[in-house]
Amino acid sequence: MKKTQLYDLRSFLDLLEKENDLLVIEEEVDPFLEIAEIHRRVIYNQGPALLFNKVKNSSFPVVTNLFGSAKRLDLAFGSRPQEFVRDIVHLAETIMPPTPAKLWENRKLFYDAAKIGLKNISTGPILENFQVPPKLSSLPMLTSWHSDGGPFVTLPLVYTEHPLNGSHNLGMYRIQRHSDTTTGIHWQIHKGGGYHYFEAEQINEPLPLTLFIGGPPALMLSAIAPLPEDIPELMLTSLLLGSKLPMVKDPRGGHRLVAQAEFAVKGVVPPGLRHPEGPFGDHYGYNSLEHDYPVFQVSHLYHRNKAIYPATVVGRPRQEDFFIGDYLQDLLSPLFPLVMKGVRELKTFGETGFHCLAAARVADRYPREAFAAGLRILGEGQLSLTKFLIITDGTPDITDFKALWTHV
């Protein structure tokens, strides 16, 4: 059966409803603590996605637990993206020296690769409604824990461009609402958006920022993916989508907009300005404490007709991000040996919040090669946040922690 292409959030919700994997709640719920508690109880019991149609003090419905099971991730993406990545790795390992026969044998791969990218269209649903001055309190941002410093966008898709060379980044950096026109932006220098902001501060220029909320399921997953710095997340979105990602020009200038996003919040992050952000109940199960972070100054806001606001809740594993992380790891793990020589297999453990514990099978053909491979892992992007790394050149299944620990 041909896989349904999910061009936006609504098509995914329609699919979940057909699969009896979406629970629609018509009773009014509060984004202050109540939605988060319902979400936690449902995901603890391996329940469905949740669509809250009546949200206190907001006209926008909220949907949560979109990706809280392996089944829903399979419904969203199927096996095609994994097959494409494996084919890319196989091609890289076998194409040299290139011959006409090898190129012909891999013609389907080249055909699929030609579908990856962005395409400009004249208009899109994201432009259906315009709000200026913006009123961020109209968005049903969640307060998930009593200790949280305020309401947060918990599935923020933060788009920035390098101020000098124009390269772009889409990342999931936590957003805390400060007022109707300002938020905090939880940027760190080792993250792509934080690096763009650092470069903007060096030339004393504000950094334009577009905050997307909702859109194709592929867009939401791509923002989380631990890609190498030079690989644009929007290209992964296109790969997961199976076609080029439609983009539309903002009539008021600046970044192009994802045509099928639910919301697009636009503004700038000025240089040198900081404001306390946090605390926030983080995905390790502990509070991330209050610290000073940059401020996003919002100029205007777009949203679709009858826009739906997606959210998630993080906390002690397993939560929704456990399933997302496992899927992305399975998708991208064949690439690790290509970009990290000497690393044959790599696994991070969602039960620890992913960053806390990782394991790798590495080559150990000469003195200290395994040690060098370990340092290579700890120097790669988000893997640099790993707290404990177990490396072996043995044969245990490194995805089975008990077998791995017994081997070690």
What are the defining features of this structure?
single chain; 408 residues; alpha+beta; Pnp Oxidase, Chain A; UbiD C-terminal domain-like; four-stranded mixed sheet; 22 strands
Please, could you describe this protein's structure?
It is a single chain. The protein is α+β, with helices and mostly antiparallel strands and 408 residues long. Helix content is 29%, strand content 24%. Among the domains are: 193 residues, Pnp Oxidase, Chain A (Roll), CATH 2.30.110.10; 68 residues, UbiD C-terminal domain-like (3-Layer(aba) Sandwich), CATH 3.40.1670.10. Strand 7 and strand 8 form a beta hairpin. It is globular.
Brief account:
This protein is α+β, with helices and mostly antiparallel strands. The protein has helices spanning 9-18, 34-44, 70-77, 80-94, 100-105, 107-113, 192-202, 217-222, 233-241, 320-332, 336-339, 369-378, 401-407, and strands at 22-25, 49-52, 62-64, 118-121, 129-131, 152-153, 157-161, 168-171, 175-177, 182-185, 207-213, 245-248, 257-258, 263-269, 274-277, 280-281, 287-288, 291-303, 309-310, 343-348, 357-362, 388-392. The mean pLDDT is 89.
